Structures are given as C-alpha cells and as structure tokens.
Sequence to fold (920 residues):
Amino acid sequence: MPKKPPSILHAVAQDPGTARRAPRNRRLPAHERRDQILDAALHEFSERGFGAARMEDIAARAGLSKGGLYAHFSSKSAVFKALMQRMLLPNLLFDDQQPLANTRPSGTALAALVDGFLEGAYARLEDDRFIRTLHLLIAEGSRFPEVIRDWRADHVRLIQSQQAMVQRAVQDGVLRDSALTDMVQLIHAPILLAAVLRILQDDAYARQVTPRLRATHRRLLMELLPPDSP
Amino acid sequence: MPKKPPSILHAVAQDPGTARRAPRNRRLPAHERRDQILDAALHEFSERGFGAARMEDIAARAGLSKGGLYAHFSSKSAVFKALMQRMLLPNLLFDDQQPLANTRPSGTALAALVDGFLEGAYARLEDDRFIRTLHLLIAEGSRFPEVIRDWRADHVRLIQSQQAMVQRAVQDGVLRDSALTDMVQLIHAPILLAAVLRILQDDAYARQVTPRLRATHRRLLMELLPPDSP
Amino acid sequence: MPKKPPSILHAVAQDPGTARRAPRNRRLPAHERRDQILDAALHEFSERGFGAARMEDIAARAGLSKGGLYAHFSSKSAVFKALMQRMLLPNLLFDDQQPLANTRPSGTALAALVDGFLEGAYARLEDDRFIRTLHLLIAEGSRFPEVIRDWRADHVRLIQSQQAMVQRAVQDGVLRDSALTDMVQLIHAPILLAAVLRILQDDAYARQVTPRLRATHRRLLMELLPPDSP
Amino acid sequence: MPKKPPSILHAVAQDPGTARRAPRNRRLPAHERRDQILDAALHEFSERGFGAARMEDIAARAGLSKGGLYAHFSSKSAVFKALMQRMLLPNLLFDDQQPLANTRPSGTALAALVDGFLEGAYARLEDDRFIRTLHLLIAEGSRFPEVIRDWRADHVRLIQSQQAMVQRAVQDGVLRDSALTDMVQLIHAPILLAAVLRILQDDAYARQVTPRLRATHRRLLMELLPPDSP
DNA sequence: AATGAATGAGAGTTCATTCAT
DNA sequence: TATGAATGAACTCTCATTCAT
Fold:
C-alpha cells in the first residue's frame, strides 16, 4: 500500500497520499467548517476508500489540523455518516421529482417529458459529487448499517411512488403498457449503467459512451412508452 | 492475545472481526492451498474491504498461520491481485459466451435463446462469489491500476464483439433494429441493476425483486428483439 | 462534539467521564471563581486522578469555559498545587489543635479529652473533601515535589510538637507511659486505618466499620492512657 | 507534565521519562515475557501512575517493542489488571498466614509469636514491590472496579478469619480481652501507618522511623495481648 | 512449508494550551 | 474576563511484514 511522503504544503499535483493543505482560515463559523470538512471528506473517501482515507488528509484539505477536525466530528465514522446524510437526501440515482409519469391526459408532447427526464438524469452523472457518493455508497455502505438502512428505505419508497404514477398513466392511456411500465426500474437502468461506467471505466471511454447511451436510452423510451395511436 | 474463538469449521456466521479457523491441514499441495487462500481472501475482502481485511484473518480462514500465508503470497496486494485475476476471467457481468446474437438465420426459436441468455445471467447473480467480486471491483478497483486496466480492456473487447454479432444479426433480419441492438449494453442493463440491488439492498428485498425483474427483462427483450414478421 | 449532557446543577451522579455543567455565572469576583474552580478540581482529580482529569470537565463543573479557567490558573499543575495548598493547611490527618496532651495537671476528666479528640478526628472522616484530599495526596503526591515537600515538613513538625506535649504530660504524671506515648503516631493510627478503608472499601462497609472502630479506638486509649491511680 | 526526552538505549540514570531498554532477548517463552512485562509495568505504573505510564516505556523496560507487548496483553488496562492479580493474592497488608492467634493453649511463649508476626509484616514493608502495589491500589484502584472488587472481598474474608481466631484465643484464655482483640485491625494499624509513611515521606525519614515504630508496635502488643497472669 | 513472537510504521483519538474574537 | 475553535504533541492500539525456530 502506498506509503505517504512527508506532508507538503500547498502541493498541487495529484500526489496521491497527502492532501493539499487549504489556506488556514482560522476561526470559521462552525457550519462553514463542517461543510468544508464534508467536501474534503468526500474527496478523500472516494479517492481512497473509507479505510485508507486519513483524518489528517481530510483535515488538511479542509484547512485545519487533525485535532481541529475532532472539534466538529467525533470520529471518522461520524464524518462518513454525516457525509452520506448530506449527499443522500437530494441526490441518489432514482431520485427524480418530475418522473415521466406526470404526464397529463392532455396533449402534452411525451417527447418533451422524456427529454426533461433524461436531461435531469444525465446531468447528475456529470456531477462529480454524485458519482463519488454513489461509489462510496456501493463500496462502503455495507460497513455502515445506519447509512445503508436510510438509503434502502428511501430507495424503496421512491420506486413505489414512481411505480404508482406510471400505473395510473397506463390506466389513463397516457403510457403504453410495456416492460418499462411493469417495473419503473427498467426506465432507470441505463442511467445506472452509465454511472457504473463512470466509476469503473476511464474518463475518456465514459465520456465517449455516455452521450451515445443517452441517445439510445431516448430511443428505447420513445419506442416503448407512447400509447398506440388509435 | 486470544481474540479468536476456538476453531470452527467452515462457519459462515456474520461475526465481523474474526475469521473462523479452518482445520489446519498441514502441508497441502501448493495450488490447493492457493485456492483455499483465495477463497478466504474473497470472503474477508468483500466483507470488510481491502483496507480493513487482515492477513491474519485470511490466513485463519484458509487454515494456516500468518507466516504460512506469506509463503504463498508476497503481500496483501498480491493476494488481492491474484484474487481478481482468478475471478475476472470467467466471471464478470457482460461475460457471456452464448449471447443473443448467436442466432442462426435458420428458424431456431428466438425465445429459447433469450431464455438461455437470461438463465445464465441470472444464475450468476445467485453466485455469492460473483456478487462479492463485483462489489470488490467497484469498491477497491481504483486502488489497483493493473487490475482495473485488465478489467477495462476485457470489458471493451467483450462489448465490441457482442455488438458486432448483434449488428450482423440485424443485417440478417434475425433481430429487429431497436434501441437494444443499437447498444448491446442496454440488453444487459437490467442485470447490472439486479446485481447492484444485491449489493445495496437487503437479502429479502433482493430475493423478492429479482425474479420479477427477470420476468420483466424477458418481456422487454421479447417486445423489442424479434424481427417484424413479414 | 456534544459529549456533555445538558447542564445539570450540582449533580453528584457517578457518571464517569463527563462533568455536570454548573450554571454559567458570568463575571464572578475572582476569588469566588477560584474557590469554585478548586472545588470542581478536587472532585475531578479525586474521581479520575490527576492524569485522567480533564481541564474541560473541571471548567464545566466550575461553570465556565476551558479558556476561562486559564484566566485563573496557568496550567493543570497550577490548579493541583493550589488545591493541595488550600486543603493541606487545615486538614490533614494529624492536624489537631486540641490533642490529648493538652491535659492539665488538674482534675479535668481524661475521658472528656479523649472523647473530644475522637469527635474531631472521626468527624473529619465524614468530610468528603478530607478523604478526597488524602486520596489525592497519596495517589499523586509523588508527582508533585513541591506539594509533597510541604506536606512532609508539616507532618514532621506536627508529630514533633505533639510528641513533646505528650512527653511532658507523661512526666507530669497525667498520662501513663506506654507504647502510645512512646510514639504519638500510634494514637492516630486507627484513624488512618479508617481513612484508608473509606478510600478502598465500599461505602456500606466503611460506614458499618467506622463506628465500631471508633469505639474500639476509645477503648484502646482508655486502657493505656490514664495514669495508674495511686 | 514532564515531556519525554527522545528514547535512549541502555540509559542507566533515574532519567524519569524513558525506561531503560533491557537487552532484547528475542523470542522468549510466553510466560517468561509475561513476567518481565509485569515487572516492568509495576515499575512504570507506580513511578508515574496508570494514566501517565506509557506502553512504550513498559515495553522497552521489558525488552521488547510496543507492538510486541500487545501480543501478550490486549490493552493497558489488561496489563494493570494482570499486575494487580499477580500482586494481590499473596501480598497485601493484612495477608498473614501465621497471625498472632495461632497461639496454642500450651505454654508457647507469646513473645515469640509476636516477634514472628512483626518480622513478617515489617519485612514486607522493605519489599519495594509490596509498597508500589499498595500505592497503585490506593491511587488507581477506583478506576478498576474488578480489581478493587477482588481486593475488597479478599480483605473482608481475611479480617473475618483472623478475628475468629483471635476470639477463640481469648475464650481459651490465651489472649487477654482488649481493644486489640475486639478488632484485629488495630493489631495491624501501625503497619499501615508505616506503609503510608513509606509512600508519602522521604526515604531517609521512613528508614529512620520504621524501626522505632516496629519496636513501639511490639511494646503495644506485649502490653495488651498477654493474659493476666493468675 | 509452517509457526507465531516480534518489529515498526502508522492511524485514530485525546487533551493541555493558545488566541482571535 | 470569557469563549470555544484551533493547534500540536502525545498516546494507545493495529497490522503488514519479518524471521528464528
């Protein structure tokens, strides 16, 4: 495992092992510091994993000392949990306030809804924090029962509400009955695929595949969702 | 210090923190020992992550001592790499020797092919080792450039070959041109979804959703793959 | 980090680890604050020992902040020394202004003197502060040369003066010559025994034994001190 | 509190702060190492107190490394407890297998018994390990409930058995009924006094007072214990 | 090949003390 | 005076790795 070089101030390179020390703004309001710490923690945890991340590096990246970090969080796990709580709520995968199903019986173009949905979903994939959080959740979630419990409950709730909406839309004749409306998860599956690619593949490949995937995803939805025209 | 409970054979308990000690079979043939070690390592790594797994626990689970373990692998990383190499080849997600595209122009029923494909894919999801390896790959891959490089290359090669087969099948009129044939990844996406559920959701939920997902997956494929009957 | 329970006034609970927060009386006269601080310090030091006591807890128990504490004492050691100085003077074991030896040749009943002596000595054993201070002195004294030096000098001076008084009383025929008058320490030994019991034994036992010890102590003195009646 | 100078090999002086490193005998039988460690621990704990003692110094004094120490004891507390267990059994204050009361009805000279008793008791006071353990027990006992619980039980049992023997001796006319036979603790009280002097006073003083105390103790016993000659 | 005591380099955590406010 | 965020120096404990047996 990589041994750390002795700490370097203001290092700029991607020097893996020691975080760049942010300028030390002494005495920040507590909630600003908390935010800085969580930003730093997201970076360090997702770069190295929970176990290999060092409190010292998180502190340095947040612009304070190791000891100072402990004035805000009582342990490494506490940092992780707070981080997950902050990121989980408005963030994860299937979270989508304007799902396809909000289609009104009126003649709103389904295409526009699909495009809005895809726009929101694929935009989130460009957000580093979203990808890093998902990565962390998959990688380390099982070591944090509370965190995973929260996520599980959220996830189930979300799927159920979206499934209900889709069901209604099908009954109203707004969406065609298909595999996609049987399980809304299939509507989101390609997005998960894109997210996992971003995690596992190199940037170049992911950046090349994602737009094509989005276009094909659009084709899939437009092939299966629109009701049979009478 | 005695942290270990007295040796228990092949126990599977969730006891986090201490591996069960396999019976000490002294002087095993080298390659059998290697296999035992890798099995033990897969368990420990996937249960706790690379960083938190302890060589002592891996050794104990494999039925030898810490020192003995080092007679077979020179370091913890070496164990991890060997593990990934063993698991990667025949195992990961898109690896499938009999993909849909092998359809012969002749009248073989497409349905049978689809069912064969689904059978193979979803069976792998029941294999703990497959899920654990995927989990590990996502969680720790980025810390092991060689491992991830190999996986990336494999993955690209696999997709390309399958894409080519599908393309040919479309040209032959065996498969309908659709979003699914545009990018074969969409054919596999629901399987990835099921795998991630197995990692993130609790067993009960995963076991309940997976069969429904498989059925819906089948419906999706049967809706989009068969050529228009003339 | 919030380790402290919401402030409780003058709580006495055994809660090891966190001091109750006294109400924050802002800007107290300096010497009142000092007293509050020393009271708090006695409690914390004797409960946990010098090393394990925390400035934060002492401060909280005294009703101010860590920083405020340092306005009154320059260091943890300074608090300890001030505490010992305050407690040592009027307090310790052999300190007794009305020792047995003050016996006048006249016919004052010796019994009354003995009873006065015992009353004073055993009353001090009921004083928590006395016991805590003795405990602290024995436990930590050796780490504080100045403190222990002072105590030693005091102790020697006290013994000598009492011994001189007793000697005179013997020569005057007021006390019988015995082991007890050979070394006055033997007169006090049972009190030390009671004090150590209070430190080491549980409250119930100490409370049960002390009165019996006092009665037996009285018997001892009455058996040996009165001069032979001519 | 004293800052430690950087560690010095084979230091000889009383350098308070870093233990002398014993020559490193690699690979000692486990129980020998345990003994060496407990010896080292007694020294360090009693010199600095439990809190201020450093595992590194204990290890060095025992001739191994910090990490090696943890192969034998799982924590600092575990060392302390093991130490107390080793020392408590045959050692503390009132432990005495040949108490005065073993007097046979026959004409054995009581004086010889008294002298034997005093010899044993005051000899223990010369044993550094005895004094250090008592000091530790008083100083740190309250932080180790199990240890103190054991000691308390032992102590009560011992007193009871000695009291019973003395009672019988009185009934048999072998000892005179007096304050000393009312509570055997009074027989031992001067020894406790001597022990506390050894802890609190300087060596010179203690060495000067102890023999006089012993002689006076003898006088006390000989004045009160022998039965009235008929 | 195998054992397990031993090493040594961290890592998390604590806390006396400082200092900007 | 008082506050409490911040520092920095320990300290305990862990664990990959080595090596005498």
